[in-house]
Amino acid sequence: MASKLVIVMANTDPRNGEELGAPIFQATVAAAMEYEVDVICTATAGRLMKKGVAETLFVKEGSPKSVYDFIKDAHEAGVKFYCCSPNLDLFDMAQDDLIPECAGIIGGAHLIEEVMENDDVKVMTY
Predict the structure, then answer these.
(1) Cα separation of 33 and 102, whole Å?
(2) Which end of the chain lies in a sparser environment, N or C, as judged by fewer CB atoms within 10 Å?
(3) Domain count, the chain
């Protein structure tokens, strides 16, 4: 049985708040179940790692909790969030622009290596 879950948020568009709840919630649940969990934000979802973005997004209109609140909850549960390196250029970001919950910047080779060389990993994509 795998002990690590990698969630790739590539097709999740921050402009559609309802798309953001499931992957972050599932990451939190997996971490609470004591699995190691990495969430890799790439493509449009990479915007979530930029300070000030997730604070303005909501899964449901009128909700008191922002997407950033859900990211903080997931992080507190043990989830590690990563920004994909091309997002820095794509969204005019520097490492200093990333939220504190972002554990770092990774490239495509890291994800491919995790999937292809680590039999202890399961991957979900959104």
Answers:
(1) 21
(2) N
(3) 1
